[in-house]
Design a protein that fits this description.
By secondary structure, the chain is an alpha+beta fold. It is built from three helices and four strands, in the order H-H-H-E-E-E-E.
């Protein structure tokens, strides 16, 4: 939500915040750590590898998801992603179109 508070009007965080699944409006973009925990628990939670909720236009990599965790050295242009096919995480430029997996509240 900090990303939105800084005045961003588009992108993964804004799309996650606008998500209204289950008629609920308190969704947000998970952190890298939250996505990693979701990956570990994916079988228990019966989570599909992909969802049809996408963010920025461009090439869609269907098994990687944006997190709210920005790259410390170049946060204006890069953020962390988590691949649900492998659990690997990486930094990517925010120009790429990865999926989002909005969450409401996360309990580990």
């Amino acid at each position: 939500l900090e990303i939105i508070a800084r005045g961003c009007t588009s992108g993964a965080a804004v799309d996650a915040r606008a998500y209204t699944g289950g008629s609920l409006t308190d969704w947000h973009l998970p952190s890298d750590d939250e996505l990693q925990a979701m990956y570990v628990a994916r079988t228990t939670l019966s989570m599909p590898a992909t969802l049809n909720q996408c963010c920025p236009a461009g090439t869609i990599y269907t098994q990687s998801y944006w997190s709210s965790t920005e790259n410390n050295t170049n946060s204006a242009n890069y953020a962390r992603t988590v691949a649900f096919s492998t659990g690997g995480d990486d930094n990517y430029g925010k120009i790429y179109g990865f999926n989002i997996r909005p969450i409401r509240r996360f309990n580990s």
